[in-house]
Batch of 3 targets.
Target 1
Amino acid sequence: MPHHHPSEEMLLGYAAGSTSEPLSLLIATHLALCPECRRKVAAYEALGGKELEVEAPAMLSSDSLVSVLDRLDTAEEPAMAPPRPSAEGDLRLPRPLRDYVAGSLDSLDWHQRGGIAEASLLTERSDFKTRLMRIRPKTAIPEHSHHGSEYTLVLTGGFSDHTGHFLRGDVAIADPAVQHRPIADAGEDCVCLAVTDAPLRFTGTIARLLSPLLQR
Amino acid sequence: MGSNAKVASRAVPDELSELLIAVAVHRDRKAFIRLFEHFGPRVKSYLKRLGVNDSEADDLMQEVMLTVWRRAEQFDHRKARASTWIFTITRNKRIDAIRKERRPELDPNDPALVPDRDDDPSEAVSANEWRAAIRKAIDEVPEEQARLLRMSFFEDKTHDVIAKELDLPLGTVKSRIRLAVAKLRRSLEDLR
């Protein structure tokens, strides 16, 4: 069982539906590995159920019911996700992450630098950086700073930094003020999903002068 | 008045769960119409509160109710109330239709899933108890804190917007939300 969990706010946001897709992906993948957080999310969804119960009913348009009844037996539910058998693909990657990488790490476009390989996901989003990282055993990740918080979910192997030791299912949260220098465990490669909620970086002199003011 | 409302909200959902089961097992249209009459206006109202305009909220509500009909057999009354299940459908439809994003969700049949002891059917009683206890914990969140949790998480409002609407300093809003979250977390942790 994981020992490092998403924050309560993340779990609440995921249950309520206010969390963005990249963070939801990380949280949902953690949930597959963490029964404890699944229970919490179920509880927070019940909070949403209560929202509906206490909601003052709105007026419906007059033909709403008829329109729904007419369609009950016609259209089929559109598939929300491609119907892939649960057991297909690399089981080190729980769903939903497995669906985002088409079943396997090999399908991704990896960029190797030293002992660290990275592959980007959800590249259409400019407000988040989402990537899988594969770090060779005992490799130190260069000290880095980031705008925004960085969330890391461990899938294989493990790593340590000054805040603790992280293994499969654990979520490490580094806020922007924290300088950290994670080191991968000996043994197997450490594969992680990393999400950074990075605001846009500005280049150019005036933008550089402005950018400290624009960050929250 | 407050206590009456509580009694009503406790009594109604059991009946609603039975209606859902009737839809799942017997494809019972009368039961579905009663579900529609109860939840349709509430789902629409919730969507409007989140800023969806009237006609779009009506359309989306119809999609929600169609999904309720089609997926009724997936409803497990041991795990959730009818209102909670329909909330999750509403949430996902909204993300899909309004935010145009995918909703990443775990797959309960994934062989990679780490099982909970409660997934064992012989433990269903403890799942029931847990569900009742969750409800009690939620009902016990003081209204002022519940309101902040609602605005911050269920209405997608930023702390700035909440501060303006409640005419409170931003710092106060942030610290009160933090307190409300911590209180809710503690009362859930006490359940175990």
Target 2
Amino acid sequence: MDSIRRTRSGLRPARTIALAIVAGFVVSLVSLLAGGAAAQTPGNVTGTVSADGTAVEGVSITVRDGEGAKVGGGFTTADGTYTIPIAEPGDYTVALDPQTLPDDVAFAPTALQVEITLDAAGAVVDFDAAAGEEPPVGGGEEVRGTLRRPNPDTQVNEPVAGVTVRAELDGEPVGEAVSGADGTWSIPLPGPGTYTVVLVVETLPEGVDLRNEGSDRLTKQIVSGQSSPLLFQLGDRVNRATDSLYERSIRLFFDGLNYGLIIAICAIGLSLIFGTTGLTNFAHGELVTFGAVVAILFNDTFGLHILIAAPIAIVFGAGFGALQDLGLWRPLRQRGVGLNTAMIVSIGFGLALRYVMLYQFGGDPRKYEQYQIQPDGLDIGPATISPKDLTSMVLAVAVLVGVALMLQRTRIGKAMRAVSDNRDLAASSGIDVQRVILTVWVLGGGLSAFGGVLLGLDEDVTWDMGFRLLLLIFAGVTLGGLGTAYGALVGSLVVGQFVILSTLWIKPELKNVGALVVLILVLLVRPQGILGRKERVG
Amino acid sequence: MDWNLIFRTSLEASIGVDAVIYAIAAIGINLQFGYTGLLNFGQVGFMAVGAYSVGVSVVYYHWPWWIGLAIGLGLSIVLALLLGVPTLRLRADYLAIVTIATGEIIRLIMRAAVLADFSGGSAGLSGYRNEFFAETSPFDRPAQYPGFTWVDWSGEDFWVMCVGWGLVAIFSIGMWQLMRSPWGRVLKAIREDEDAVRALGKNVYWYKMQSLILGGTIGCFAGFIFAMGKGSIQPDNYATAVTFFAYTALILGGTATIRGPIVGAMLFWFLLQFVEQFLGGLRDEDLISADLMSDSQLGQTRFILVGIGLMLLLVFRPQGIFGDKKELALDAR
């Protein structure tokens, strides 16, 4: 009897794992195919820099978009070549920084930048010092640009349409253009010269204003054959700088609460999985991304409203969680694979999943249909909460309360806590441990997918959104105490507040750094976390 | 399909600059993870410290490159202490979480626009290696070396490879000697049963710390070679995936063996390059349509394959290709 059982548990899981891994990727590929087909793929700008046929090393090349914002950069290597990956296709200016050239190499000013249209196949731009000496062919001079303004709620740039822009030469108007639906405008010019380009402020839509007063005219010297991008900085004058610290704190408090709730939703699944199986799951971020991407698929590609797409995404997420447990983690447990090995397996799994997402979804951020434009929000004191954030927070709290009730009141909830507490004791008192773990995976997958949808509402949907959140989820879970559901909740709320409120003093680009530093500091003084039980852990 | 080209580029990759970088990084991880059982997922952080120390010293402060390297080694000791003090007394997964977080912190700080004058922001640094080549390299820049074989490199790459493989040899011999010493046996004993070692009166915490510091400084050398081999330091080249690649290479070659990191890194880059060239070749012959797989997707495929490869290795052959299963005690505790 015993030997038969051993053969079965030794052989069957091995085959199941191989099958499940293959099946998992086939399912992911197929389910994402529709979304992937519509997504754009990034391309590379490549080329060489040379002077009279000799390669020039260490020259800085910059790629800027129509607004003049830098989207990529790099340096030439020893053979004079450079490669700059660009996230999305479009019109770009590729410029060479003359200050990085060796002293004996000089370029004509007109040869320093090149306009390109980038598609998925990439673009090649070669700079050669000899080429710049010949006068470029004239004609085709123009000024152009894209009018955008940051949405006050999301800070995502939105195009501004129907604005008149006028070009003047020596005070005389020479051309005019109106920005299109995508915010772009271009004015052909009669020839080289120094032009003043004026944005007609009266044509700006309600609520949109110049970011700085008096910045409605730009002067630009146009050389022969040049198509020059110009940037008008727009933004509703919120006077953020003059807001008091109190007002900004209140506003950021609500942002932080929203963010903390999203982290909490994702963290509870991770914490329950850790509690019941001991697995530190580094592929948890991909469950989050999966939810957001499935929602985009149904929302954008199939045209369903987000309120319908979100529950579908949650069901898919729960199924994905169940599939992971049945196909990968349960066979691994039966094989007796240790926890540290399983942790590294989850790293490999996460890496593969993440790049399957990138492969199918593309590198571009996407938004849910219903949230391209936001109506006015609800005022609470000095803070304004957009209906989107309010809905998100109410739903998150409702789900968290539901999970708490389930853990406290229902049979399966009690069983989960029992398995977390002492797996062997739970098993010997008649609890089907494997079934409880499967339920935890279903719950964790569904919650993470929901968290992903909420995160997609808060930011944008990108292929690595879950991975970027993963470290904060870990911070929340560790802060609250590894393996405790309520600890994960408390820890995540603290992390969310900390990340957002820290932008009062530090640059937003560094906000995650603060939270991770706090995680390390907390481990120094209270390694078991806020709600964790004090025990010897090493 | 040009099989000659595919094999030549794959062979070049297997002994080229990338392979040597990952071999050095993996030697450091092998000491920490293979011999001591520490899960350092922040090796890329040590590499970034090594690379940026040299880059910033030369570009921003105009100091010689070797001062930058010395600063890098000093900073990696500090970094190892910072990581070790809060986590080495705790369970293994705490170190994993903290190290992976620290690697990201270093990358985020280095690419921050606030520090653009200092560390180059998201574009990174360049133009720091001329002095290194002028002072040390016996090879001409534009010439091809070794010149008479099937595969050739530029003078710069070849010199970086010579230095890098030299370092690999030194570290490997050092590691071999260390692991035969009483010190090495204590490390292996910690991996097998920490409590037993503690019961014998050894200071487990301090031994683990030494292992973390030594492995980290080796990682710092990997970063130095990374910077010198590439000609520019770009922050996004120091993302967490680098650490996972190095782990995959190590496990492929065999954890807790001297030859593991070297064989693993060579094999890893050979396979990576081979698969990419092969898929590219299939696409050029229209066996895979360009709609199905664009150039960038071709590059993404290899990440997917590394991920699946890492999983399959750990599940079916955790000792790697040449490893010894007895030496493999990932989950001793």
Target 3
Amino acid sequence: MGSRQFFILTFGLTVGTSILVTPSGLAATAREDAWLGGLAGYMINLGMAAMYIGLVKLFPGQNLFGMFEKAFGKWAGKAVSLLYFVYFLILAGTLLGNLGFFVTSEVLPDTPIDIVQILFLAACVMCAKTGIVVLARLGELMFPWILFFFMVLILALLPQIEWDYIAPVLEGGLGPVLTAGFHASMFQELIVMVVFVPQLASLRNWKGAFLGGLTFGHLLLVSVVLFSVLILGIEQSANSTFPAYALAKTISLGNFLQRIEGILIALWIMTFFLKTMMLFFSMMQGMKTILGLKSASYAVYPIAVVLLLVAWNTYVNSVYIGEVIQKVWGGYAMIHLVAIPLLTGASGLLRRRMKILSENAEPT
Amino acid sequence: MNWSMTLTLLMPLVLLLEWPQLKALKSKRDKACFVAVWLVATAAMGAEWAGLQLPRPMEIIRVFCAPINAMLP
């Protein structure tokens, strides 16, 4: 995998489902400062990315699961890796549920949700069988189209901007902005990319690709949040389940260019697919490392079936999932995105220091 | 259509399709792992077909993460 592909996969992971879901949460918490909340989320994610870069430097040649074994010992490391396997499984299942809910509520209302999810999973299984390099190449093919669709969306929305909607700025102070930013940052899961660093062909430009993908993804996200506030206004942005989709539905240029919300759906499905596949590959890599397997590709079908069950039992309805995201997900994500990586880094630094001290103490 | 029934009945086909690949690996550990994951997936989908209420992952997470979530804004 090359650094350009790594950039695109990081971008896909950052945007993923966030483009559709986070504008609503940001608008509900930070109101007119939702776009500032998006920027705050970006700063928090930058901090987390710096921490992950530090982990890669501290444990050269190791993927995320190997780092845990090096930092905490074999069995404790495997236990921590198992926690991450479950985290990725629940996250991927929730994303799948989100996909089914969005498609059946906005696009195909008479279609059973199960078939939408199963069809999507069929594509995921095909990709999982072929390997990460095929996904990386697919990302390279998709990326220009994602950019093109996004530019069409932005340019078509420009005439509808109402600058008054963004005022007053920082009326509630920095508190709501930082709270909104924190909650939004728990949805990017950049730690997934640490699983794939050892698979890069060259480590020369990986940091730039990682930070670039994160930055570019956030540029897209903050733009969508900003346009949601500037065009829909705060009430509709906060109360819509999918404000970005509502935004795309407002496009009407000269009574000619209309009903192009399909563009947003295409953009979202592509980034969603990239994110789901990264999680799928992470689970397979986790299984391989935890259990010491020669391969994990035979487990693709059973894992897909379990993913479907997680989707059915997690995304029960939009009210339940809204409450869970608000009250449960933040703490759970923080453990995996901040707390455990910090502990891993601290353990790694301590072990390195002890090794240096013991080498210096050896009699000459 | 009852998808949980369809998927449960398709699971033996998965076993048949993947077994040659597992044999080629010549690893008892890999075979055991696959059988374990396959059994979990089949049992869970079978339970869904039978109409049994499977545990909701978010409720389990809610219980374990309650102290941390109480401290967050």
